[in-house]
Design goal:
The protein has helices spanning about 25-30, 35-40, 50-60, 65-85, 90-110, 110-115, 125-140, 140-150, 200-220, 245-265, 285-290, 295-300; strands at about 160, 165-170, 175, 180-185, 190-195, 225-230, 240, 265-270, 275. It has about 325 residues and is of the alpha+beta class. The structure holds iron/sulfur cluster. Iron/sulfur cluster binds next to helix 2, helix 11 and helix 12.
């Protein structure tokens, strides 16, 4: 038996190494636009832009991203509260808390939609409506009932939004695989990942295989006892769960190795993760990609419509 129902799950920690680590999102950025990849992962090597400016651009967020963050943080608070108490949820307070987070996050951060597109005011009613729908979908789902009926028995061993970036080792490679919620049930581990965006079958299937691999490596559990699941919360509740075969696992390891080695080729010093010069990171402009890119003004200096440094999302006034 590999895992007793009451086993305490804990994450390994690794001594710092500068070498790059593979993640789905890192390779996705690399694959789409090398210049965006350079600005995202090697910003300290950008010589022609002041560091404060790079930091500001890297911190730009978007309405879909913050909407997802609010839902994640509300569910994190909900699960942590459930770990301590069986009391029924006070729905009014639950939604008030979500709305409080919306106000806080949307007033503190700078949004790509305003910074580049000049939107005067973000429609917070629409944001709140989407968040309320996602949370209601969750509360009316069988997943919610399952957590209460089955998973609650071992709640002391839940891992909710673990800290850090999810560093692990797969087949000897450094990999980052961040999971939202891990919970042991009997001799198995379930991994839930909340999504408020669209379903992407191919990408999300890879993500689930990555979760299986990471959990198997971190906790020394066979793959057939790990059940990773994507939980879609908007516009309707849906789930995606896959059975990972030995072939899936072998293909996944081969892909991670190949993609890691390709990314190494853009390093002048692989061990210390020092990139080639910026010219090697070519731009791949496309309307769909550039319109969502934080670094648009570095590629297209004329793209700022109003030249404002920061806009308050709540009131539409300049904050600086
Ligand atoms: S603006 Fe377009 S070309 Fe420039 S880094 Fe972003 S995605 Fe690449």
């Amino acid at each position: 038996m590999y895992l007793a129902g009451n086993m305490q799950l804990s994450f390994a920690s690794y001594p710092f190494t500068p070498i790059l680590g593979w993640s789905i999102s890192r390779y996705e950025v690399f694959d789409k636009c090398k210049r965006q990849y350079f600005y995202t992962y090697y910003s300290k090597y950008v010589a022609e832009v002041p560091a404060y400016k790079m930091k500001r651009l890297r911190e730009l967020t978007s309405i879909p991203l913050e909407t997802g963050n609010v839902v994640h943080d509300v569910l994190e608070a909900f699960l942590k509260r459930l770990q301590k108490s069986d009391r029924n949820i006070d729905e009014g307070r639950f939604f008030d808390y979500a709305h409080e987070l919306v106000k806080r996050y949307f007033s503190e951060k700078t949004f790509i939609e305003q910074y580049y597109n000049g939107e005067q005011r973000i429609d917070l009613d629409r944001v709140i409506d989407k968040i309320d729908t996602a949370l209601r979908n969750f509360m009316n789902s069988h997943c919610y009932n399952w957590i209460f009926m089955v998973a609650l028995h071992n709640r002391d061993n839940w891992i909710i939004e673990p800290a850090g970036y999810g560093e692990t080792r797969l087949d000897g490679m450094k990999v980052y695989c961040k999971m939202d919620f891990l919970l042991p049930v009997d001799e198995c581990i379930y991994i839930l990942d909340w999504k408020t965006g669209n379903r992407d079958q191919a990408k999300h299937a890879q993500q689930l295989i990555g979760y299986s691999a990471a959990a198997s490596s971190l906790f020394a559990i066979p793959w057939n006892r790990i059940f990773p699941r994507i939980v879609y919360l908007y516009p309707a509740f849906d789930e995606m769960e896959i059975r990972v075969t030995d072939e899936d696992r072998d293909r996944f390891f081969a892909r991670v190795r190949e993609q890691t080695e390709v990314m190494y080729q853009w390093c002048s010093d692989i061990e210390n993760n020092i990139p080639l010069s910026v010219e090697a990171f070519t731009k791949s402009p496309s309307p769909s990609l550039c319109s969502q890119c934080r670094f648009r003004e570095l590629c297209f200096p004329d793209c700022r419509p109003c030249g404002r440094e920061k806009t308050n999302a709540l009131d539409g006034e300049d904050a600086t």
